[in-house]
Amino acid sequence: NVLATCNFDLKFMYVLSRWESLAHDSKLLSNDLIRRNGLKVSEGKYILVDCELSNRHQVLAPFRDVRYHLQDFVDHDNDYQNANEVFNLHHASLRNLIERMFDIFIPYCIIFKSVPSFLSKTQTKLVLACVTLYNFLRKKCRYD
């Protein structure tokens, strides 16, 4: 399991990759926000999370039981029912940015598709190496 944050330039800003694969996302986030060297969120900034997680200080999840997916807003010409739908539309747009980033990033992780299974400690280092390579290429080869 990997916990990652990124910026609007599609670069990773923070990566935690040492949890077992069965750990729930809320456990990763909760634990990491309280660690001394864990994820720090600058004042006035927020982390967007999916609807499986709940809102908390500087963590924003979409409103439940309210239109969310961008596809749900097509053909409605700004016909929002309330402010919660507007929030969810913007949340979904930003989430699409994250999904696009991971679509670009995943090919850098081809090493994990190879036959040998790596020890957990090695996997953690490989994830960080892939992220570092990805960020370097995003900076140096903008259109890679």
Automatic annotation (TrEMBL):
Keywords: Metal-binding. The keyword Cytoplasm does not apply. The keyword Metal-binding applies. Its cofactor is a divalent metal cation. One of its GO terms (molecular function) is metal ion binding. Residues 1-135 form the DDE Tnp4 domain. This is DDE Tnp4 domain-containing protein.
